[in-house]
TrEMBL record:
<keyword id="KW-0732">Signal</keyword>
<protein>
    <submittedName>
        <fullName>Diguanylate cyclase</fullName>
    </submittedName>
</protein>
<dbReference type="Pfam" id="PF12974">
    <property type="entry name" value="Phosphonate-bd"/>
</dbReference>
<feature type="signal peptide">
    <location>
        <begin position="1"/>
        <end position="24"/>
    </location>
</feature>
Length: 323
């Protein structure tokens, strides 16, 4: 009997010994999802060095996955992502659907020696379009945009146009193209009159094709001292990096520590055009923008019931009843 008990104990120990390394390996691997605001191959090339840097600094395998917004939403719903980078408007939508504690960090971009933690929108048209020179000229023009939930590719511009009584959703033909590169190609080809892109895209493509400076012009240019990119709108906080609730606190601390230690001179930062990461910004201005435009997650008009009406006007109702 003693031999049988000893045998069972040895078998149990062997099972534990075999399974522990596998469990550790699983917990030491995380997935970083990055929103593909440009073609997938471009984003992969730029952010793989960041994943490699995080792998080295944290001691965990950090696997990079690049998604469009719909695919990222599905991956989040299936808990296939542990950390993600996306634009602030998309972050608000995700936050409304999931139990997120907030952003872990906000990225800072770098361009020609200048850095910024702010994002905005750019309005472009072909240089020869003499009929399009100011915001009011966009009335009834066709507009190419990556999509409605792009902060720098639609929402920032829509708010500026609303301020001069141009409602792009009612008065314009909107063409949704999925990324910023397609927007620029559409404008250059004459398929659309105007394009909405986020800050930084124009400079990136201009470095690849200097002729763009003669082919495109910027509508409503803003002159902000120290800001490295052309701009047509007000500014908002840059992309947040967010951890999901299922990630344990130790893993979150390791990743956060590595992010904040990333220097602008590091190859991983330079590959992605980053100056590093800062503590999370206040995204209230993005929330106010989405509310003003009635964009998700603030696109539903609150339902008003008789109870709400009675509560709001109870003093008036009581007075009338007494009379």
């Amino acid at each position: 009997m003693m031999k049988g008990m000893l045998y069972r104990c040895l078998v149990s120990l062997l099972v534990v010994a075999v399974n522990v390394p596998a469990q550790l390996a699983a917990s030491d691997s995380v997935t970083l999802g990055v929103f593909a605001y440009r073609p997938d191959n471009v984003i992969n090339e730029r952010y793989q060095p960041l994943a490699d840097y995080l792998t080295l600094e944290t001691g965990m395998a950090v696997n990079l996955k690049v998604f469009n917004q719909d695919d990222m939403n599905r991956a989040l719903a299936a808990n296939q992502i542990d950390f993600f980078l996306t634009n602030p408007s998309h972050f608000l939508v995700i936050r409304s659907e999931r139990s997120l504690t907030g952003a872990l960090a906000t990225l800072r971009r770098s361009w020609q020696g200048k850095t910024t933690g702010s994002i905005g929108g750019v309005i472009i048209t072909r240089a020869e379009r003499d009929d399009i020179n100011r915001l009011q000229d966009l009335e009834k023009k066709s507009i190419a945009t990556p999509g409605l939930t792009y902060l720098g590719g639609y929402q920032a511009q829509a708010l500026e146009l609303a301020s001069v009584d141009v409602d792009v959703r009612r008065h314009n033909r909107m063409v949704f193209l999925g990324n910023h590169d397609r927007v620029i190609r559409s404008v250059l080809a004459g398929d659309t009159d105007v394009g909405f892109i986020r800050t930084g895209i124009y400079e990136e493509l201009l470095s690849e094709n200097p002729n763009l400076a003669d082919e495109l012009k910027i509508i409503n240019p803003q002159q902000l001292r120290g800001y490295p990119f052309v701009l047509s709108t007000r500014l908002y906080p840059e992309w947040p990096l967010v951890s999901l609730p299922h990630v344990d606190s130790r893993t979150v601390r390791r990743v956060a520590s590595a992010l904040f230690a990333l220097e602008p001179e590091h190859a991983a930062a330079q590959a992605a055009g980053l100056a590093g990461f800062s503590p999370p910004a206040d995204y209230q201005s993005v929330e106010m923008l989405s509310r003003s435009l009635r964009m998700p997650p603030y696109d539903q008009v609150p339902r008003v019931t008789w109870v709400d009406i009675l509560h709001q006007y109870r003093n008036w109702v009581i007075t009338v009843a007494v009379l």
